[in-house]
């Protein structure tokens, strides 16, 4: 059933086609608006060039079915948000319901008319939030014992598909949580209405837990101000976009790797260094939106460079990230000793990777190590929450982590909360390789 809080989807394929069908008129309109927006000819040219890439980027991101897709390109993502908002002003004419979610319907003429209302001014008017480094003291945990339990989910800000199912599972988990942590990304571009409906209204807050959300590239495509304002208020009460908690045995650090895309500001690195310097014998676990390495996506060289010292000293025990829309458990890193996990399969419907035979049920598939990355195992299977095309999209879910004194155990859950894999992380452990039974 569609969720009442989801904004309507803007079909990437249809949007790209409409831009192409009306290319001349739209390009002229964008150029006119750019000239009105700024006197700087370089910026005008950048705006026109960015828009010129929108249709191609949208095309690359889609397979043509009516399922949420979005490129990693700021202007295209902001255009999708803009169109969703415009259509929502006249829902009777411009929004239709399909089983998965509401979808925007529009003509080529509608698109041009909507753009004429001032798309470039909206894009240029977006404000990047001011960086402020978090204080050096930890966020106080509500539970001061040597047992902690955390829910982790990434790329979840859709309020559709598996996202509300995951939220219900975490909200209703009878075993309690000390932290509920989203690894970032509210689609399409972290606009105030998207942040309100798909993050603030939809989040699985728990009274027993710290409720936390990290910054993602899609949150930043709008400048991140709506995200930043949201996490500081309401039930989050998060001081900054990066934070840490600690107990006697562990330091758990949430990094902002999106304010500077797939990187960290120097002030944040200095903050992190101070936290590690006072951590003593505690083990360190990182959480971030972006990946330090990957077998299936880009590497994170800037991030790795900033944290190289700590990685080489084997100071990081485990690292959980999103951004890539998939679930991957990596083998222990041969040089850094850390356990890397991608948990970006929370809310965004993602294309299945083509890896060997097509499977009809959830299956861990083994991935071989490369020069960039240790080997690992990826979760493959269909997605029952994408009703338009369940076979084309990968399974959604989340993880929970249990810390008991110096021990750590992780659980991989389906969206409905059932556990499909569990693993104790010790220096001798390897990635998940056995089939799900
Ligand atoms: Fe992302």
In short:
The chain is built from 13 helices and 16 strands. The protein is α/β, with parallel strands linked by helices. The structure holds fe (ii) ion (FE2).
Elements, N to C (H/E)? HHHHHEEHHEHEHEHHEEHEHEEEEEEEE
CATH homolog superfamily of the largest domain: Metallo-dependent phosphatases
CATH class categorisation of the largest domain: Alpha Beta
CATH topology of the largest domain: Purple Acid Phosphatase, chain A, domain 2
Assign the CATH architecture of the largest domain.
Answer: 4-Layer Sandwich
Return the average pLDDT rounded to an integer: 95
Attached small molecules: fe (ii) ion
Q: Can you give the helix content as a percent range? A: 25-40%
Order of strands across the biggest sheet? 6-7-8-9-11-10-13-12
What's the count of strands?
16
Report the C-alpha radius of gyration, rounded: 21 Å
Strand content: 15-25%
Structural domains: how many: 2
User: Structural class, from helix and strand content?
Assistant: alpha/beta
For the sheet with most strands, the description reads: 8 strands, mixed
């Amino acid at each position: 059933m569609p969720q009442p809080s989801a904004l309507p989807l803007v079909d990437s394929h249809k949007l790209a086609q409409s831009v192409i069908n009306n290319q001349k008129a739209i390009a002229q309109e964008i150029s006119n608006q750019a000239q009105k927006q700024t006197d700087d000819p370089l910026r005008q040219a950048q705006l026109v060039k960015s828009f010129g890439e929108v249709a191609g980027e949208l095309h690359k991101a889609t397979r043509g079915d009516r399922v949420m897709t979005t490129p990693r390109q700021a202007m295209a993502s902001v255009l999708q948000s803009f169109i969703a908002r415009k259509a929502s002003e006249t829902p009777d004419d411009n929004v239709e319901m399909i089983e998965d979610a509401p979808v925007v319907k529009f003509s080529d003429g509608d698109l041009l008319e909507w753009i004429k209302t001032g798309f470039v001014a909206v894009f240029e008017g977006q404000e990047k939030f001011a960086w402020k480094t978090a204080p050096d003291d930890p966020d106080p945990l509500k539970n001061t014992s040597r047992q902690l339990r955390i829910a982790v989910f990434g790329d979840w800000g859709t309020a559709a598909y598996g996202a509300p199912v995951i939220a219900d599972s975490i909200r209703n988990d009878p075993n309690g949580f000390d932290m509920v942590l989203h690894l970032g990304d509210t689609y399409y571009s972290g606009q105030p209405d998207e942040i309100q409906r798909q993050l603030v209204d939809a989040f699985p807050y728990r009274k027993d837990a710290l409720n936390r959300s990290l910054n993602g590239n899609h949150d930043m495509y709008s400048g991140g101000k709506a995200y930043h304002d949201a996490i500081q208020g309401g039930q989050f009460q998060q001081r900054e976009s990066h934070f840490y908690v600690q107990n006697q045995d562990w330091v758990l650090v949430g990094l902002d790797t999106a304010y500077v895309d797939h990187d960290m500001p120097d002030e944040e690195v200095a903050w992190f260094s101070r936290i590690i310097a006072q951590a003593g014998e505690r083990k360190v676990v990182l959480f971030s939106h972006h990946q330090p390495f990957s077998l299936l996506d880009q590497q994170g060289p800037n991030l790795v460079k900033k944290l190289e010292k700590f990685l080489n000293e084997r100071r990081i025990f485990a690292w959980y990230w999103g951004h890539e829309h998939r679930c991957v458990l990596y083998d222990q890193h041969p040089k850094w000793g850390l356990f890397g996990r991608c948990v970006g399969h929370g809310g965004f419907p993602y294309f299945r990777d083509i890896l060997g035979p097509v499977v009809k049920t959830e299956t861990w598939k083994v991935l071989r190590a490369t020069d960039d990355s240790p080997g690992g195992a990826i979760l493959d299977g269909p997605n029952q929450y994408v009703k338009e095309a369940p076979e084309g999209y990968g399974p959604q879910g989340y993880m929970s982590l249990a810390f008991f004194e110096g021990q750590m155990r992780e659980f991989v859950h389906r969206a409905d909360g059932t556990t499909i894999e569990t693993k104790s992380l010790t220096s001798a452990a390897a990635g998940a390789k056995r089939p799900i039974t």
